[in-house]
Amino acid sequence: MVQSNGQNGRGTVFPIVEAFGFPHDSAAPDAAKAWSEKTCPFAGGLCEKYRQYHFGYCSVTYAANWNKGQQRTYAVCDHRLDGPPVEWAVTDYFGSDQATLVSEVMATSKPRLNIDYVAYLDDPSAPDGTRIIAIETQAIDLRGGGVGPAWEAWEAGDVANWRAYFTAEAERKGRRDTVDYGVNTGNVYKRLGTQVAVKGEYFKQIDVPLYVVMQHSILEQLRSRINFTPVEDGAPWDITFAGFEYSGDLDSDGKLRLDLVESTRTTLPNYLEAMTSSREGSALRSDFVAKVRKKKKTPPNQQDLFTL
């Protein structure tokens, strides 16, 4: 039995938005080429996700509760923020000067600290004769059952019947026949929030500005958890957050555009203060104790799973 999942669209809306960098139903010649060669037009070369997992989708559609239940497109591959969003960060800092862009730089080995991109140019007036920035790109992860059956339908050229592929998988694995996936909003704080703190501290020590590039909806989610104070225009800063969003428009090659919605700068102390302060005002010991006691009274089979 096919089950609808209500306003979030699961079970009624084809989950995959982009495949190998193009709309899944694109008629563009460049799309056909990317699909045939299994390449990523943003990072260049073969699609890493397809090589590792045999999936080549870049984004999915989902209606998150924290986004007021609105159906939105979410980039679920970090390379989806490559290209124009990264180029914006380079231009924002260097202007018309031609900087060199280097990908996947290991800043430290113990502990291992990788940075997605570094851009630099020779400048005798700068420390070490080099003007340099670090750029971190951040998509969001999927959670739940995933969209693998939808990908199988797309590969088979059978998108119209995509829902049946979930039914077939459920029968094979003895699972409930449903479409169960989502976007992992918990990682926005636990993963991205802490990454910015750790990398921001490192780059602050060596006087390298840090850019953090993401979807605007993810930036909004981050700000709801870490509401840092921005600095005024022209004031010294350590971190620039840049939020891009799908406009629905296509670029000249037929890819969906990600356009800048907002950029905001802050200092590392501002960010760390916001990260370690309470989101609900003054913390009360009595409130915490009451929550623990209430949880204890809940039957074990009704308790939520404990998550860090």
Structure description:
- With 308 residues, this protein is of the alpha+beta class.
- It has 9 helices and 12 strands.
- It has helices spanning 29-37, 48-53, 84-94, 148-155, 162-173, 186-205, 216-225, 268-276, 285-297; strands at residues 16-19, 22-23, 57-63, 71-75, 100-109, 112-122, 130-138, 142-144, 181-183, 210-215, 239-250, 256-266.
- The strands form 3 sheets. The protein has a 6-stranded mixed sheet with strand order 5-6-7-10-11-12, with helices on both faces. A 4-stranded antiparallel sheet has the order 2-1-3-4, with helices on one face.
- A hairpin with a 5-residue loop joins strand 11 (239-250) and strand 12 (256-266).
- Helix 4 (148-155) crosses helix 5 (162-173) and helix 6 (186-205) packs across helix 7 (216-225).
- The chain starts with 15 loop residues before the first strand and ends in an 11-residue tail after the last helix.
- Residues 1-7 and 301-308 have low confidence and may be disordered.
Structural class: alpha+beta
Count the E strands. 12
Shape: globular
Q: For the report, how would you describe the main beta sheet? A: 6 strands, mixed
Tell me the span between the first and last alpha carbons.
36 Å
Average of the residue pLDDT scores:
89
Cα Rg: 22 Å
The percentage helix is: 25-40%
Portion in beta strands = 25-35%
Strand order of the largest sheet: 5-6-7-10-11-12
Oligomer classification = single chain
Q: Unreliable runs, pLDDT <50, ≥5 residues?
A: 1-7, 301-308
Q: Order of SSEs, N→C?
A: EEHHEEHEEEEHHEHEHEEHH
How many DSSP H or I helices? Answer: 9
